[in-house]
Design goal:
5-stranded parallel beta sheet; single chain; 497 residues; 2 domains; binds D-mannonic acid; N-(1-d-carboxylethyl)-l-norvaline Dehydrogenase, domain 2; alpha/beta; Rossmann fold
Length: 497
C-alpha cells in the first residue's frame, strides 16, 4: 500500500476513506489560543471547531495551540512537521473506524522557549478566546481551603518574574495586562477541564494570582473577563504505537501522533462569551443558562466511575476499562455505586434522564475498541478524586446516605499507593504530583489505620467523620488482610458468603 505522510501538501492525495478539511486552511486566522494540546483537546474542542469550520466556512476561528513546558516539545515538533494536521481515529463499538483529518489547529507555540511571544499572541487583537486543558491539578487550588496555593514555588517564581512565567496564570495575567493597557477588550477564558464550575474556579484562581501582582488589574479581570462554565466529554485513550502502525499499514497515512477516541462527544457550555465565539452549536455543542446539573452528573458518574474501576480494577489485575465492565461483578459494582451513592446526591435536571445516562456510560465504558488503560485513569488521582469522588462521600455523610462502595475504593487506593502492586504482585506505577505524600501516608497504615485518610490536601475533613472512618477502617483491614478485591466487592454487593 502506498503510504502518504500527512501534511498540507499531501491532503489531496490521502485515501478517500479519510475525511479531510473541506475549508481553505490558508485563510484561517486563530481567534482561539488553546493551552494544553493533549489528546483530549485534539479529540474535543479542536474536533468541534473543525466541524464548525467545515459547516460554515468561517475563517476567523482557527486555533493556535500552546504548550508551556519543555515536555510539550514533542507535540510541538510533530505538529509543525505536519502543518498542524493530525488524524482523529474514531473507534466504534462494532469495530468500525472513522478516520478524519482535523484542520482547525493552525499554529503552535512553546511557552518555555519564548514566553513573551505567547503573551503577545494572547494579547493580540485577533485572539478572542483563550481556552485551557491544563488538567484538574493545573488550577493550583489547595483542596483543603479552596484557595489559590500561593506557597507553590512555581507561583512564587512567576510573581517575581512576570516576563518569564512558568504557569498559565502568569501568561494570562501578562496578556490581560497588555490588553488593558492597549485599550483592547479582554478575551474570554474557557476552561475545558473536569472540574465542577470550571469557569468559576478559573476566575477565582486567576484573580487571586493577579491580585498578588497588581490589585487593580485583578479587579479589571474580575469585571471584564468572562469564564463560561462548561461540561466536556469524550473518552480519549492514550495513543499507542499500534494505533500509529494500523493507520499506516491499513489506511496508508503516516501520522506521527494521531488521536483515538470514542464516537460519543458532549459539550455543554454557559453562553457568557464577551468577545465573540464560534457557533459550536452547529457541531452539536449545547449552550445552556446553567451547566451545573450536566457537569455534576458527568464528573460524579463518568469520571468517578472511571476512578472506581481504575483503582479496584488495578488491584484486581485488569488493565483496561472495557475488561473491567465485561466482568459482571465490576459492572454490577459500578452500577450500584452510581445508583446508591451518586444518584441520590444529584440534582434532578430538566431534560436529563439519569438512568439512561448511566446505561449509556456502561455501554461507552464497554467499547472493546477503546481499550482505555487503567494506568491513564489512575494517574494524578490526588488531583482527580477531590473533584470526582470526595464531594459525593461528603454529601452522603451529610444526609446519612450510603458511602461504603466509595470507602472500598479509597481503601484500594491506599493499598495501591502503599504497595504499588496488584493482588498478584504486578507492579502498579504511581504517577502523581503527590506520589511521595501518597506513598508516605499509605505506608503508615500498618501503624495507624487512618494514616492515608489524614492527608488533608486530598481528603479534607473526611477523617473527622466517625461514620466514615469506621467503614474505611473495616475496608482497610479487609484489603490488607486479603488483597483479593473482588471478594470484598462481592461481600458489599451480596453480603457475606
Ligand atoms: C478520565 C477522563 O482522567 C480521567 O480519569 O475519567 O479523562 C475521562 O475519560 C474524560 O473526562 C471523558 O470525557
Amino acid at each position: 500500500m502506498k503510504v502518504i505522510r500527512l501534511n498540507q501538501r499531501s491532503l489531496h492525495d490521502l485515501p478517500e476513506s479519510v475525511a479531510c478539511p473541506s475549508y481553505d486552511r490558508s485563510k484561517l486566522t486563530a481567534g482561539i489560543v488553546h493551552v494544553g494540546v493533549g489528546g483530549f483537546h485534539r479529540s474535543h474542542e479542536a474536533c468541534y471547531t473543525d466541524d464548525y469550520l467545515r459547516t460554515t466556512g468561517a475563517t476567523n476561528w482557527g486555533i493556535c495551540g500552546v504548550g508551556l513546558r519543555a515536555a510539550d516539545r514533542r507535540i510541538a515538533d510533530v505538529l509543525k512537521r505536519q502543518d498542524y494536521l493530525y488524524t482523529l481515529i474514531v473507534k466504534h463499538p462494532d469495530g468500525r473506524i472513522d478516520n478524519r483529518v482535523i484542520g482547525s489547529l493552525v499554529d503552535f507555540m512553546l511557552g518555555c522557549d519564548n514566553p513573551a511571544a505567547v503573551i503577545d499572541r494572547m494579547a493580540d487583537e485577533m485572539t478572542k478566546i483563550v481556552s485551557l486543558t491544563i488538567t484538574e491539578g493545573g488550577y493550583n487550588c489547595n483542596p483543603a481551603t479552596g484557595d489559590f496555593d500561593l506557597d507553590n514555588p512555581d507561583v512564587k517564581h512567576d510573581l517575581k518574574n512576570p516576563e518569564n512565567p512558568t504557569l498559565v496564570f502568569g501568561y494570562l495575567t501578562g496578556a490581560l495586562k497588555k490588553r488593558r493597557a492597549a485599550g483592547r477588550p479582554a478575551f474570554t477564558i474557557q476552561s475545558c477541564d473536569n472540574i465542577q464550575h470550571n469557569g468559576d474556579m478559573t476566575r477565582k484562581m486567576l484573580v487571586a494570582f493577579a491580585h498578588e501582582q497588581d490589585p487593580e488589574l485583578a479587579e479589571w479581570i474580575g469585571h471584564e473577563v468572562s469564564f463560561p462554565n462548561a461540561m466536556v466529554d469524550r473518552i480519549t485513550p492514550v495513543t499507542t504505537p499500534a494505533d500509529i502502525e494500523t493507520l499506516e499499514n491499513d489506511v496508508g497515512v503516516k501520522d506521527e501522533w494521531p488521536v483515538t477516541c470514542e464516537p460519543f462527544r458532549q459539550w455543554v457550555i454557559e453562553d457568557t462569551f464577551t468577545n465573540g465565539r464560534p457557533q459550536w452549536e452547529v457541531a452539536g455543542a449545547q449552550f445552556v443558562p446553567d451547566v451545573t446539573p450536566y457537569e455534576t452528573m458527568k464528573i460524579r458518574l463518568l469520571n468517578a466511575g472511571h476512578s472506581v474501576l481504575g483503582l479496584l480494577g488495578s488491584i484486581h489485575g485488569y488493565m483496561t476499562i472495557d475488561t473491567c465492565v465485561a466482568d459482571p461483578l465490576f459492572a454490577t459494582y459500578l452500577r450500584r455505586f452510581m445508583d446508591s451513592e451518586v444518584t441520590p446526591v444529584l440534582q434532578p435536571a430538566e431534560g436529563i434522564d439519569v438512568d439512561s445516562y448511566k446505561d449509556s456510560l456502561l455501554e461507552r465504558f464497554g467499547n472493546p475498541n477503546i481499550r482505555d488503560n487503567l494506568a491513564r485513569i489512575c494517574l494524578e488521582s490526588s488531583a482527580k478524586l477531590p473533584k470526582f469522588l470526595i464531594p459525593t462521600i461528603v454529601e452522603n455523610l451529610h444526609h446519612g446516605g450510603s458511602t461504603e462502595y466509595s470507602a472500598l475504593v479509597i481503601a484500594a487506593w491506599c493499598y495501591y499507593s502503599d504497595k504499588g502492586m496488584s493482588k498478584d504482585g504486578r507492579k502498579l506505577d504511581i504517577v502523581d504530583k503527590m506520589k511521595a505524600e501518597l506513598h508516605g501516608a499509605a505506608a503508615g497504615t500498618s501503624g495507624d489505620k487512618l494514616s492515608f485518610l489524614k492527608l488533608k490536601p486530598v481528603f479534607g475533613g473526611l477523617v473527622d467523620s466517625k461514620a466514615f472512618t469506621d467503614q474505611y477502617s473495616r475496608m482497610v483491614d479487609a484489603v490488607y488482610e486479603n488483597p483479593n478485591i473482588a471478594r470484598h466487592m462481592q461481600t458489599l454487593l451480596f453480603g457475606r458468603e
